[in-house]
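Data deposition worksheet. Section B asks for the primary sequence of the deposited chain exactly as it was used as input, without tags or linkers unless they were present during the calculation. Section C holds the resulting structure in token form. Section D is free text for depositor observations; keep each observation to a single sentence. Incomplete worksheets are returned to the depositor.
Section A, Depositor: J.P.
Section B:
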Amino acid sequence: MPPESLIELLGYLVVAAPLILMAVLGLASLLNHQLSERATGRLVHVAVLVGLISSTMILGLMLAWGMRHVSIEIGSWVVIPDYHFSVKLTFDRLSVPFVILSFVLCGVIGAFANRYMHREPGFHRFFVFYALFLLGMVITSLAGTIETLFSGWELVGLSSALLVAFFLERPAPVRNGLYVWVVYRISDAALLTASVAMHHMRGAGDFDKLLGTDSWPGGEALVTSHQALVVGLLLLVAAAGKSALVPFSGWLPRAMEGPTPSSAVFYGALSVHLGAFLLLRVSPILDSSFWLSAAVTAAGVVTALFAAFTGRVQTDIKCALTYASLTQVGFIVAEIGLGFRYIPLIHILGHGCLRTLQFLRAPTLLHDYRIMENAIGDRLPRMPGFWEQAIPRSLSVWFYRLAMERGYLDGWLQDGIVAPFLAVLQWCDAAERRWTDFLSGGQSRESDRRPPSASTFDELL
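Section C:
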């Protein structure tokens, strides 16, 4: 069998494994026929192993035969004169390592969660969302078109928001899940707008037609500098929302309301790196515009400084690890903006593995600390750092409060982005009520209902 045909067969297995897992678990939940915990765990292990072995074999075949770029055309769902939606998978030096990382970390988390979530009322619901997330990661990693990437992007966002709001009996997880979903909507809108712009410029969303036919990290964007700047800024907004870059960093600590396994693999290892992965995928566009590369670098540096500054005052171990993870994501984005390609990819692979280990170790680490403190009869000693000694106390208190409030980013985001949109929507709602009353010749029941105000939105978030 030719290597291209074998890679195509293995590529179908890579996508089919999480798809079948999600279909089986989801159908069992819809039919109210929940599998046993042991059966669910074995099904997850088999699906992850099939996907991991298949993707590893693809990597081996590509290395053995010297292939750097293999595309699989699955088909076109929509074909009209000025638009077509095609499903295409791409295996190259970026997608294959990232999909292998996804299977490895999801496999580790699956084995951990099978014990961590033991006898939890939402055990099966957790693994349905887990399978949805894994499928989204695989589709996003292997996407050869902007539409395919957007489909996986949406699956990742949906599963992430649902897992943040996993504990439905408490109001805080549901409220924070809504906040995460709102930020993801901004990111998704930017990515969708970029997709439309790419179709307008090149007539297709195929990365090969937009970024050149050379394998990653080569290629040259077939657009002008001005077009690259416009599309690149939209993609930067999409990456900022998904990777919690400034000013969208407020959702990341809120995501810690979910179970520890989801916090480890989603917001510490995989989901938080999707923005950087997107920027790596469209790196030829960054090379076409100096100002776009400068904006990406600035976003990464500002995020790294903000996360390092805010993370120093966190008292919750998951939030502290979250900001430590965000610091590294900022460095990765800055490396991409500076023109590096393999260094940020290696940084993503190493950081994802390390942060997953730290998140999984965190509960037992706290238990070990408690044992040591009980043994010595006091808290563990902590030496003040250099900056704590060098900065005057009054200024130190101000910085401490600023860090505890996370730079007031939530307030700025609400006043600068949410409030104007809400005002426009309220005006449209009022105009619609007046028009309805005029047509009906009297006051309708909808007119008696008070439209939501900014304070109502504040209560929701």
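Section D:
The two ends are 56 Å apart (CA to CA).
The CA atoms of residues 146 and 195 lie 6 Å apart.
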